Amino acid sequence: MAALRRLGVKGVEIRKPEQLDSVASLIIPGGESTTMAKLAEYHNLFPALREFVKMGKPVWGTCAGLIFLANKATGQKTGGQELVGGLDCTVHRNFFGSQVQSFEAELPVPDLASKEGGPETFRGVFIRAPAILEVGPEVQVLADYPIPSNKVLDSNFGADALEEKWSEKKVIVAVKQGNLLGTAFHPELTADTRWHSYFLKMASDVAQGASSSIVAVGGGDFSLNRRQINDLPVFQ
Prior knowledge:
The chain is an alpha/beta fold.
């Protein structure tokens, strides 16, 4: 939660459904999405999370959190996993490969730059990262990333569908739909706090009568040591 602290915001952890009643906005951090889903199911968090989304409260999902918010996910393990939903998109769970294929890349972010200032690009840190394959008409695309020519896409879509969907040779890695924000990468692992500021402004627009705390569901701590991810390669 170091990025939030740099912006003067205190984060609290959410472990029980009733704790959601006292906060106005929520961050679902990265991690192992299947394990996170099992823990959320064990603690009966899914009904409360879905209600939180339906109430229009701001929710930001990063990496695994993005998978949680998607209406549909592919590339999952046998049996899949339960989703919170609300974000009209299809996410591929491990689009960019395994842990050793993690990478960093400069992403064009014109909307973020226009609202938060700073450079026209953002250094995205992708760790065993998902990607958004398609979005609904109400979803605003905030960032995308080129698909390498040798990338094998999910065969579940079918050859004809793939040819049509991937004519632009890009996947989506950041979106916004109403009160929901999703990023396939980890903004908290950089010194650039613009995504956090962007989300805080979303929260301030709707927060009335509840705590202004930004929270991490499941007790996830996403203030990892920056030295752990130095010199990650650009995905090719």
